[in-house]
Structure formats: C-alpha cells, structure tokens
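Why run this: before we spend reagent on co-expression, it is cheaper to look at a predicted model of the complex and decide which construct boundaries make sense. The entries below are exactly what would go into the expression plan.
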Amino acid sequence: MKPITLYKKLFAKFGSQNWWPVTDSGQAKPTYKKRKKLSNQQRFEIMVGAILTQNTSWSNVMKAIEKLNKAKSLSIESIASMNEKKLAELIHSCIYFNQKAKYLKGFAKYLQKKYDGNLNKLFKKPVKELRKELLSLKGIGNETADSMLLYAGGKPVFMVDAYTKRIVNRLWKKEINNYVEVQGFFESQLKKDSALFNEFHALLVELAKQYCTKSKPFCSKCFLKKDCLFGLEN
DNA sequence: TACCAGGTCCTCG
DNA sequence: CGAGGACATGGT
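The model came back. Tokens follow.
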C-alpha cells in the first residue's frame, strides 16, 4: 500500500482531525477546531505545547496550557522573564517539568533575542535553515522542531513520532528506528503539501490510539488488516 | 503493579 | 554513530 492510499483510508475512516488544538481568545482550554488562520499567540502556544508534550499525554499538556492561560503567562515575554520554579509549577502536570521549564525559558529568550519576539520573522527563514537552528536549541529535537514547523509554521515537513514509527514498521514490516529515515519514507512518496502532512500525522495518531496500540493491537477488528503486513499475521 | 503517553540531553565507547 | 540512563506526572 502506498502512503497516499493509507492516507485516504484513514481520512475515510476518521475524517478531519483539526490539529493542532489551540486556545481561542477569551478561552483557557485548547480545542480541536478548523481555523482559517492562526494568531501569533496561537502559533507560540503550539510551540510551547510541542515542548510540553514530549513523552507526555495531551491531557496533561492541556492542564498546563490552561494554567498558563489563566495565569496570563502564555506569552514570549512572560515565559522569558518568569522565575523558573514558578514556571515549573504551572506546567507541573507534564512529566519532566523542571527540565521543560528550562527549555521553555531558553526558547522564549531565543525568540526575543533573535527575532524580537516576532514569529513572522522567524518563519520567514528558509525551512531547512530554520530547522537546523531550532535543533540547536536545548529541548528541541527532531520531533519537536518538525511539529513547530508543520503545525505552527504551516511548513510542509512530515512529522514523525513514536506512533508513526510503530505504524510504518508494522504496516510495511520494516524495522526503522531512525527519525530522518521514517520521515524520508513519507516525504519521498508524497506531494510536499503542508495541509496533507498536517492531516496525515493527526490521522496516524488516531489509528495508533484506536487500533495500532503499542501492546495488544486490535488487528482482528482493524479496517487496515488486509493491507497490513503485521495485521495479516495477527 | 506496571506500563504507557504526540522525547531530548548527556555520557561513553 | 548508537546504546543506556536521567528526567520524574497522571490515567488505567
């Protein structure tokens, strides 16, 4: 099965996922919703969420975002100047909160220093160059950088996570652990389209949560069973 | 109880 | 390079 075929089947099954969930003005909780355009505030929120969600369930990230919103602290200036312990308290629901507080603060300071806190300036940079730059920051690895580029910047970068790797390795019976390799697998076979990449990744997450779970996957009732080299054996 | 969740850094060979 | 440990919540 080709990646685009997988995409179509996933979309037919699950429909639009409306990623990435963000907070609308006047609200405190992020929601999944189709939005024409993201505000810079929302783009920053996505980048913060990308760091918070490292090895963390979204429900725990949501609690932290909500706290930051209520404390009126979800801004570049606020995070850049906040006491690290105070910040760690606000994001306490996310595992590794001390570490992440450090990462967030460093990231906000970098945005201030290098881009005057202006995300438009940041995303004007050529993607390749920007990706390298983000990767040089503490706390931003491949997945975090790509989720920022794709979901906050609208760049056509295929985002890979543990779910993506699991699905690729099962569906096509591969054994790829390397991030860039998995990314290349998709990017080389798909049109470089940010809307497609956006939806595709969200759909993969849904598949992984509902059927292709880590232990005890639900192969027998999975709608992809016949297309899946793992499913055929299970 | 143990395992999982939208990882990254550091160190060592 | 890649393996292995540190980081240290909340839900099931």
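The radius of gyration of chain A is 18 Å. Residues 49-51, 53-61, 95-96, 99, 103, 138-144, 147, 159, 161-164, 201-202, 205, 208-209, 213-215 of chain A lie near DNA strand B (CB under 10 Å from a C1'). Bring this page to Monday's planning discussion.
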